[in-house]
Amino acid sequence: MIITEFARSSLESEESFTNLLAEIKQITDFNNINYDLYFNIANTYQLPIHFAYLIIYNLKNNKKLTLKDLSSVSFYAICRDVLTPYKNKAFTFRKQFNLKYPYLKNTDERLEWYLKYENGLSLINKIGILEAETSFNSMGIGRTRFEQAIQRINIEATHEEIEKRRLRESDGEWPTAVASFVSKERGDLTAAELFAIGDALAEETKTTIKMAVFSYLLSRMGKIEVYFLASQINRFHDHVSRTSSLIRAFSKAFNLEYKMLERLISMHSFSDIAKLVEEGKVLEQFERIIPFRPFKPMLAEKWPHKQQKGQFPVFSEAKYDGVRLLVHKLGNKVICYGRRRKEYTYKFPIITKLANVIPAYSVIFDGEITAQQWTVEGPRYLNVYELHEAVKHGMNNILPIYVVFDILFLNGVELVQLPFEKRRKIRNQLLTIIKQRGPIQGLELREVQSVEIKNQHQLISVYNNYIDTKHEGAIVKDPKGLYELGKRSKFWYKLKPKETLDVTITGVIPLQEQGSMRVWGLRYAVKRGGVFVNLGMIRGLDLRAGTRLAELLISGGLISPDSKLEDLTPDIESRGRFTQVKESWGFRTIPQIVITIDSLGIVRQEDKFSLRNARFLYIREDMDVDDISDWNDVYQYYMKANT
After folding, report:
1. Is the peptide bond before 349 cis (omega within 30 degrees of 0)?
2. How far apart are CA 226 and CA 144, in angstroms?
3. What is the CA radius of gyration of the chain?
4. Distances, alpha carbon 178 to alpha carbons 147, 150, 207, 417, 564, in Å
5. Cα–Cα dist 180/169, whole Å
6. CB 3.0–4.6 Å: which of 187, 480, 506, 637 could bond 221 by disulfide?
7. Does 248 reside within a domain?
8. Do 486 and 541 sit in the same domain of this protein?
9. Is 513 in the same domain as 477?
10. Is the pLDDT of residue 17 over 80?
């Protein structure tokens, strides 16, 4: 334990530590805890400040604390031997931190060893470290406060300097840039004490105390530990999380069936599953589908470009641009959940009216909630973002519509193992009975439009009909397909229209690697009345496209030599939810390069537009900037997408 380096020799045993706790408890006024108290305790008993804080926290909350609770493998060892290979960061750390570690046979075996090895951590903490499900995710410290804490250690770590290193030296990774300001190679904190402190800080209400303790923790860490703590707090490493490897290792380590574990993960967090295993619970009872046990729904794959043998017959169903909603009913109670298992009944309380019309004691529907609004041109479907705005304003003057496209549970029986054609038949029978009971005040319950398709020509015809009737596209379903919880399944395919815009680049977020530059992100614009109007930003360009754009920028002299790093977002026309990106610092460019982009949708606010998840497609080196899309093209793009 590190406390033996600082504390008195009397802390070498549990008995002397218990006596110390009793002494501190006797002299402490727990009704008057302030910043100075922790330092007084630390100085009096020669304790590190984070340890003094932990003692006061546990005494105040009547929680038991022992030296054994804080004894574990070091956090450095966890980062080096477990997190680095698990997150596939070997190259990054060899380059950035000169980190070397022993040869790894494969990630699965190393994870299995980590899960079974007695290193002083509970199974819950082991999983939490891997999956970013620790108390550091909820302690109220984000990027800004993390940077402020780093600056207390290294005064040069200003936000502007961190951004420069992120763009020029760190391959766009904020955690890597932050860690580069740490001079220490390795820290001396144990993983157990780090996460014990995290639990305490998550409940701390005084920001000054929280920041002081957190800054001290960072001062005791090395580069790699700071990197992974930054990743924990902002969940950046979720994007490279190799969950399939963890499932395989977990199933082998505890002799669990892989498919059962996969199903459990659709219903529970991995940390919750670890707790069940640690407590010796029978997992089978927690994998059953029952009302009010939320689970992640099945998702559709993109339609394959090449027609597969035996692809038809299939069922084609209308795709709505709404909010995914799973409705659970048990007795007279109805609760609805979103696609991430979050309860949405508070957002859509109108759904509870289904309790009185569904002729079944228990049922689980999978569907989509959308809404219609009446205009001078007739009824119009709201898109998902307009629906969210309507929810904020009480759903006034619109008709909510719940569209049912699957039934997964009925009167105590799971239906997910039935082929879709049988579930479709049950769905139709139940909804027909409900429809015969008459309309529901303030809500329309609708069965999704569904057509049996025999060939591709018929599919195209039905798909075009869906588009003409203001739907988002089509979902193509395998008649024999099962319902796979929490998976993007090949039993369902989605078809959506694809519209594009030709835009010019007015700003770039560059990366510098080994003396060369590539473009990682960009700001794009269209023309309106001869003036360039910035619509939004795109980030995460691949190496090939980013390198070519950098070559064009440099050869064309499109970035001024005295150009300064700045935030590119203030000049964006509509700074809506889809233009707000965290990585937004870059350089202005002369608008000359043309690229083609598409998006998942477009939102209009008065005379301003904002693209939803705009995506770079390709560079148009054959096109002049005078020929890019203008404001009328953007309006037509909007009309095609939303009318």
Report:
1. no
2. 15
3. 28
4. 7, 7, 21, 48, 21
5. 9
6. 187
7. no
8. no
9. no
10. yes
